[in-house]
DNA sequence: TATAACCTTGACGTAAACGTTATAGTAGGT
DNA sequence: ACCTACTATAACGTTTACGTCAAGGTTATA
């Protein structure tokens, strides 16, 4: 269901001179390509994470290959336990300010990279904490000896078993 | 505010023959002893995690030393970031899956934890790779090499960096 | 017996990231 | 023209682990 009738937004060039018309995606197509849902895409738009590049004459959202790439990036970051707000921070860095001189651009890039690095460090720390947490949970669960499963209320077991010998 | 007037529940023995009357705790006392809130205890009761051993004549919830121990266990498990539902499972009060014996349940929990750990390890690896990638870019940007200034915006980097070079 | 400090049930509020209607307009094929 | 599949906006529902009233009983103490 490729859509041909489109509205030109004020800023967008009439048509790419090199190609005979860009290939747009509807919201459903983009969602399917990325294995997500239409609702999710509309929600991401609300969150200013990603929006359509234009609308059709009938107000349909239209996306392109750039959208696809960006959405995949968003989803990948989400898979790494970034919250949407954090993703906005990471991906929003590029669009924040338009620097003009090369020095300003360089400085801006430097700051972006440093902020990205900081966010990644934070994520690594969070995940590391989660990991040691899970390891503690595993020790707890693995510390359970079989006799404990039969314990009479109030009976005492060994140390590791302490959390699991509590009966109703 | 130790409560003396109590109602005997049908199942509970009249009174412990060894002690001259059990020492009951009101919900507020139990909460304070464990550093939690009354609301939390009532919520745990709703979740079937822990309830009063009996009620007073005036319908007050009454707990005992056993409750105290159990509540501490619950809170300890929570400290390990078990969800309340997981705590129910670990304590053998509830099985979401079709496993019926406590051993099977524990084995299920163990496997789930190991999977989670593997997932987290993978994420940490990815993030670590992204981090060193960004560090490489930072070194590039911070290097004195002027030609490098020409290729930064939108230029392509290596694999790990793909999520961060996506523009709006 | 009055009073403070508890306790009771009930019910609504919170945050994140969507899911799920409901109602109505649109794209494309026959 | 008509049908089907898709899309639009709007708005309410879901989950977790409680917080926070509200309106009213209860307990122990003065």
Could you please describe the fold and organization of this structure?
Two copies of one chain form a homodimer. Chain A is mostly helical and 168 residues long. Chain A has five helices and three strands, in the order βααββααα. Chain A has a three-stranded antiparallel β-sheet with strand order 1-3-2. The radius of gyration of chain A is 26 Å and the shape is flat. The relative contact order of chain A is 0.08. Chain B binds a DNA duplex (30 and 30 nucleotides) through helix 2.
Q: Radius of gyration of chain A, Cα only, in angstroms?
A: 26 Å
Distance between the termini of chain A: 60 Å
Overall structural class of chain A, as computed from helix and strand content, comes to mainly alpha
Low-confidence stretches of chain A: 8-20, 145-156
Relative strand content of chain A: under 5%
The general outline of chain A is flat
The biggest beta sheet of chain A reads: 3 strands, antiparallel
What order do the strands of the largest sheet of chain A run in, or round the barrel if closed? 1-3-2
* H and E order of chain A: EHHEEHHH
Mean pLDDT of chain A, to the nearest integer, reads 78
| SS elements, strand count of chain A | 3
The number of helices of chain A is: 5
Q: Which two chains share the most extensive interface?
A: A-B, 51 and 48 residues
- The helical percent of chain A reads 40-55%
């Amino acid at each position: 269901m490729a859509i041909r009738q489109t509205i030109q937004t004020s800023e967008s060039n009439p048509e790419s001179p090199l190609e005979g018309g860009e290939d747009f995606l509807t919201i459903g197509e983009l969602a399917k390509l990325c294995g997500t849902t239409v609702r999710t895409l509309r929600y991401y738009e609300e969150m200013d994470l990603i929006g359509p590049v234009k609308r059709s004459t009938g107000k349909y959202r239209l996306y392109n290959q750039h959208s696809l790439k960006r959405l995949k990036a968003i989803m990948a970051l989400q898979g790494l336990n970034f919250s949407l707000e954090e993703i906005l921070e990471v991906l929003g860095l590029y669009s924040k300010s338009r620097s003009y001189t090369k020095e300003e651009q360089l400085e801006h890039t430097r700051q972006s990279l440093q902020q990205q690095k900081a966010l990644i460090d934070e994520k690594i720390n969070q995940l590391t904490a989660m990991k040691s947490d899970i390891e503690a949970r595993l020790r707890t669960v693995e510390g359970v000896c079989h006799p404990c499963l039969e314990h009479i209320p109030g009976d005492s077991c060994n140390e590791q078993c302490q959390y699991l010998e509590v009966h109703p």
